Prephenate dehydrogenase (Denitrovibrio acetiphilus), 550 residues
Amino acid sequence: MMFKHIAFAGLGLIGGSLALSFAERGVKLSAYDLNTDTLAKAVKTGLFEYATDDIDELLSLDFDLLYICLPVRSACEFITELGRRKFTKPVTDASSTKADVAGAAKQAGITFCGGHPIAGKEVSGFTNAEAGLFKGAYHILTPLSPEFDTQALRELHEAAGMKVTIMEPEQHDRTFGLVSHLPHITAFAMVQTVSAVDIDALNYTGAGFKDFSRIAASDPRMWTDIFLENDKNMIDLIDSYIAEMERWKNAIQNSDEKAMYQMIEHAAELRRRLS
Amino acid sequence: MMFKHIAFAGLGLIGGSLALSFAERGVKLSAYDLNTDTLAKAVKTGLFEYATDDIDELLSLDFDLLYICLPVRSACEFITELGRRKFTKPVTDASSTKADVAGAAKQAGITFCGGHPIAGKEVSGFTNAEAGLFKGAYHILTPLSPEFDTQALRELHEAAGMKVTIMEPEQHDRTFGLVSHLPHITAFAMVQTVSAVDIDALNYTGAGFKDFSRIAASDPRMWTDIFLENDKNMIDLIDSYIAEMERWKNAIQNSDEKAMYQMIEHAAELRRRLS
């Protein structure tokens, strides 16, 4: 079964981009958002059947998939509310952490399969949404309810040009804690260090610093939620990362040329695999 | 006085790019490099009057500026050798740290003004050199000998489209320790952490990780030298950076939503000033 009418709860950069992309494949759209400005912009595109800031109205619509695209803690609250209303239609989400969302969905007893599209930009909001944002990107599915038609969700995202992979929610949070959440913290901390030590030095940053710190210009609401939800993994990962920084400090303190050369060679070799 | 004939000692990415850029402005070029392959490539461009791997031959040429573009410790050794030979023509360099080079030049008693062009790429060698690499970039001058015509050096680089600034060598090393050398260490440490914790997670890196870690694919010889020369600053800076990471760890451990939100907001605001 292909989904024919998808209702989005939350129409920011991620929800908006997914919606625009599905619309190109002929899917009918509806939208719920508390920001009436956003709703007005959505209506203007002519792509949405319904746009509302009223949850009762939203849930009364005849969609066949509810797609939650809210910051992760708001997503958990929304799921809890769906449970309270004994909502039965299939629900998915696009939150950046998956274990707590899965826990909320289990508790709420809804028909749920988690999801996480691996792309983004350092700008937010529906205004910046674009249909092509997720083309070629991974979409991670973290199935929960056996009655959810995961295959239909896979096909929906593959039709939008995404590479779909299945993971356990806990594995997802460890993996993306490591390759996404930790790099964000290290970039925030780097910019903060410059600010604390000598803010005028920012005048002399080159292209390397700009690329390196691009992810530091991220949305505080979204990222605070991520760190609150993925806290246990983040504490372990920060410890592992500080241990690597201590190895660097020791190598420099001991003028250990060989150790430094090998650490750089190893990191450079790994990094070159990615491009 | 404008320099009319510049001899480059070291014709890698930096030396090669500077040479190509000065050639476009009608400057006569010569080159010294121990790699005969590199010399053959330089000769092939038709831009070099002389290309040699013999230091005696190099120093007998009639150039009016010697431009050392070697990894920083080789640059110091080269300067010491110039002192031994009582070399008197003006000498500049392009090394990434400036205090130790200045110390070597003072000791050698040569006519010296240090320099550092603030640009680069994650590839090295003359093959990757390009005339436009430094267009619009800063060039930091760290004058040493009063008899050196700093104004001529300034004009040479301004003619190549660079923004020239004067600094003390020690100030240079603190500033670039902070905005260039430290970010490189944090990127190396990040890639190493992924490798140590779960190397398969590299499959799921998005555009953010790729931008963030681009500088991890850097040349081990060049960067080992930089950390050895700028060791005292780097040890202090790593300590400041680890302190910021500890602040993050504490905020996450205490679920301190407000602290996290403010730290992200502050970092994002600073980062947005750069683009």
Observations:
- Chain B has two domains: 5-167, 172-272.
- Chain B has eleven helices and eight strands.
- Residues 172-272 of chain B form a domain with the 6-phosphogluconate dehydrogenase C-terminal fold fold (CATH 1.10.3660.10).
